[in-house]
């Protein structure tokens, strides 16, 4: 990890933004998430640990995703817009 990355990780107010596509047996969803890099890593780790397939996408993938339900969630230092398509 270079010095710039160390400074970013040490800054508790730093916010990183990502788009993720997440799939499991019940649903496919796309997340528009923003939060501290440690929180984002923790979230991704938990999803993978629970059997989800996770890959990074972009804003075009988020905007073009057909969904059944959209929600906004705000947790400690983590905000998500979630578009979910339920497997029938």
List the helices and strands and how they pair.
Elements (H helix, E strand, L loop, with lengths): L2 H8 L5 E8 L3 E9 L1 H13 L3 E5 L1 H6 L4 E7 L2 E9 L2
Antiparallel strand pairs: 1-2, 1-3, 2-5, 4-5
Proportion of strand residues:
35-45%
**Assembly state here?**
single chain
**Which strand order does the major sheet show?**
3-1-2-5-4
According to DSSP, the number of beta strands is: 5
Helix content: 25-40%
What characteristics describe this protein?
alpha+beta; 88 residues; 3 helices; 5-stranded antiparallel sheet; 31% helix
Could you describe the 3D structure shown?
With 88 residues, the chain is an alpha+beta fold. It has one domain (3-86). It is 31% helix and 43% strand. It has helices at residues 3-10, 37-49, 59-64; strands at residues 16-23, 27-35, 53-57, 69-75, 78-86. It has a 5-stranded antiparallel sheet. The longest helix is centred in the middle third of the chain and has 13 residues, at 37-49. The mean pLDDT is 91.
Task: Provide a concise account of the structure shown.
This protein has 88 residues and is of the alpha+beta class.
């Amino acid at each position: 990890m270079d010095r710039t990355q160390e400074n970013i990780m040490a800054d508790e107010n730093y916010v990183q933004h990502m788009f993720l596509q997440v799939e499991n047996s019940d649903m496919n969803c796309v997340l528009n998430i923003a939060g501290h890099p440690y929180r984002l890593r923790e979230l991704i780790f938990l999803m993978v640990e629970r059997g989800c397939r996770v890959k990074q996408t972009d804003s075009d993938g988020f905007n073009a995703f057909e969904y059944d339900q959209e929600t906004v969630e705000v947790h400690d230092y983590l905000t998500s817009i979630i578009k979910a398509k339920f497997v029938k």
